[in-house]
Structures
1.
Amino acid sequence: MRSKSSYENESNKGTGKQSQEDSEGKLGKVVSPNSKEFLFICFLVTLWYSSNIGVILLNKYLLSNYGFKFPIFLTMCHMSACSVLSYVSIAFFKVVPQQMIKSRSQFIKIATLSIVFCGSVVGGNISLRYLAVSFNQAVGATTPFFTAVFAYLATFKREAWITYAALVPVVTGVVIASGGEPDFHLFGFIMCLSATAARAFKSVLQGILLSSEGEKLNSMNLLLYMSPIAVIFLLPAALIMEPNVVEVTLALGRENKSMWLLLLLNSVTAYAANLTNFLVTKHTSALTLQVLGNAKGAVAVVISILLFKNPVTIVGMGGYTITVLGVAAYGETKRRFR
């Protein structure tokens, strides 16, 4: 093996110009990949923000402003797109290696997660019929609170007391935001809270059910198997609970041809939100993801207010701010006191 001094001696040979060119070449080799990686991550984060915020705004527009009042059918459209596009992404584009279901027990666990996941998405879509996106996001920010509660009830694993203390402003902020919400709707609030709890329960349940090394699935493969199961459950639910969905959808489509394009765009965006979430998670740290997630909610609130002109109060915005700060504090305490 050649010593460091021999490399230094060789690098000092030749003209000063050659040494400078060599240094610049080495510097370019070091900086270029990092710059490309940084630009790639920025691109992913932009797509993640756009798809996540976009699907929320499109859901709100379809369900509240367009006359398409079928949240269960809308969720089924999302899951149908996720089924097809997940298969294409994994089987043809090799986004991730395909993981196979290895047992009946594993399939039952995935089906259970799919049902809980359906409940969270349907509940969230129903709430958008009655609540402003800004308030919907404020309630959704309480996910860490429900995650902590369900994790303790399921595993009896306690966090540090300061971690639980950080959850106080999370809940307090939503209480304040609820009192300051001009268009507060009790049923919409209950559905939004239920959807948030179901989302947290699904994450805890996933950690328990698919905890063994042989059963673990990454989020994209899990979506691949959960989506078609969700469609099987949602189709009869939509036909029974939304009996005129076919007639009204066809009528809306005849009146406005762009409705089909809007529905397709919404469904594809729902899949893009899942895909970009996976990619951002893969290419950034957990702390970065947490900070970006908190900022994403705030951006969604601002954009929704500008688009839908829903009234907001200083009390409501103050409550949401307290909740976001509480979520940030909760994430930081979890990171420090593991």
Note: DSSP finds 14 helices and no strands in the chain.
2.
Amino acid sequence: MPENPLIHDPDAGIERLLEIMRRLRDPETGCPWDIEQDFASIAPYTIEEAYEVADAIEREAWEELKGELGDLLFQSVFHAQMAEEAGHFTFQDVVRTMSDKMVARHPHVFGDESRDKSAEQQTRDWEAIKAAERAGKAQTGTLDGVAANLPALLRAWKLQKRAARVGFDWPDASHVLDKIVEEARELAAARDRRSHDEIEEEFGDLLFVMANLARHLGVEPEAALRRTNAKFIRRFEAIERKLAERGKTPEQSDLAEMDALWDEVKAEEKARQDECA
């Protein structure tokens, strides 16, 4: 197959990437791995790339973010190429659909509506437009359209946001805290009965209420948990370094020593924060 000059043109933009994708999927001259893929097999990579974008942003790794955004863009191109091969739609259809959606959802920018409104009012308008779009797709239920494949904690948060819009919500966070205490007691009772299925159910109930508390406090639970995961990694790695200075590994230590080092690392972090304040 004659080489398309687009492939080697660094200034060709999105058309270069689309041509590269077409070549990778070419049944005669493409990459065997790429040819074998389908929507289901690529979907996990798409999710993974989205999380890597979020991770780069959280770490403020801007040079890495450039690459991660490219990886995520490539996922869209991959899905669009497979869709075109199957006769569903093209990448240009994806671009057109997204552009039309953004114009329709921002009448205060691209239409005649006034821009003189608060962010809160713009959010209400956005949700009203999205509700009308769902109704046009015969998605009339309050919870329709909340993606089933979202991470469970994030989906719980979004489901509760939807329910709250129609008044199914506690009036303030104090009621949610009371419910957390109740759910924790039910989990403890299930643990005592040693029924694994019941323990799992009660644990899920507790997580669901915790997601609701996050919403009442204005916290996105996935972001909060990612932040805590990063903090745990940072502190545990510091423990490993301190143990290494003593000629030890975690396996050669014990809980009491590692717990004392954990407190030491926390104190050092707080001292650094106080210096920067």
Note: The chain has four domains: 5-103, 113-140, 141-219, 223-276.
3.
Amino acid sequence: MLNSKLKSSLLLGAMLVTLTAFANTSGAWWNDIKNNRASSVKEAINKGQDVNALNQAGQPPIMQAIRDKSMAVFDVLVRDPNINLNIENINHETPLMYLAIIGDVRRAEGLIFRGADVNRLGWAPLHYAASIGHVDMIKMLLANGAFPNAPAAEGSSPVYMAVTSKNPEAVKVLMAAGADPKAVNQLGKSAIDLARELKQPGLVEIMLR
């Protein structure tokens, strides 16, 4: 029989081999995502790769794919039955919020169809779309039930964020959906106040109609 020291040594060696293999696989996985190697990512999934495991920066694969503009990889990941479409990264952001930022309406709509949440406590996809002034994305999110007056973590509304984009059309679309430009955040500032502060009289006029 093996003595306890030898058993411990063998067990430690086996663990190190396993961890090294995992590290190599993990590194290859994230590199494949970065380089948009959809077939390699699909192969890794077929071999048991966890599609929801966060990387060292706190990003899940589906969101890292968006950051890397690896949309072929994104398309592979989103079709996986084990994917968590509402997974959060280290900053409590979701895949739909990332798509709202880049303005990919088709993929965002597909994500919602598959079960992604349009509304959530705090910052929501609509805030993100409004902050960039992505009008088509704003329209799509509203059409899918996004709350036009949803308060962000510090109370700012989507129309408040739309003012930061300085896009009149974004403000108009939100106003038409019932956004309240007089609602104040925790600093006591409204979208109208912000528009005046940013010297955007056109936006002030739109919100005072």
Note: Residues 1-25 have pLDDT under 50 and may be disordered.
4.
Amino acid sequence: MLEFVFEVVGELLIQLVLETLAELGLHSRRQRRKPVNPAVAAFGYAIFGASAGGLSLVLFPESLVPEGWRLANLIVSPVIAGAAMVGIGAWRAKLGQELVRMDRFLYGYLFALALAAVRYQFAG
């Protein structure tokens, strides 16, 4: 049972670490530009998440979640990751920092869902 918990938490940590690194990268590249259409931005975050999922397969080719729980992980982990991005966004707002779209639930969720979908489909 303890092994199962470590496997699920490990898969979630992969998503959270990659999403946090992406968020940090977006903050470091933040420039004042004309705002992008939200639908285009959502598509971009999904592509970015799928790319991170591909990168995660290079680093961790095997799924850490047992076969019977992989679908549940695909559903639950992106929700947790999106909520974590909201927390990071609230922390940044409290510090007076400008927020990027990934600091909001929907964009963080889309990134994590695309990442999890790639891992669900291709992790062994």
Note: The chain has four helices and no strands.
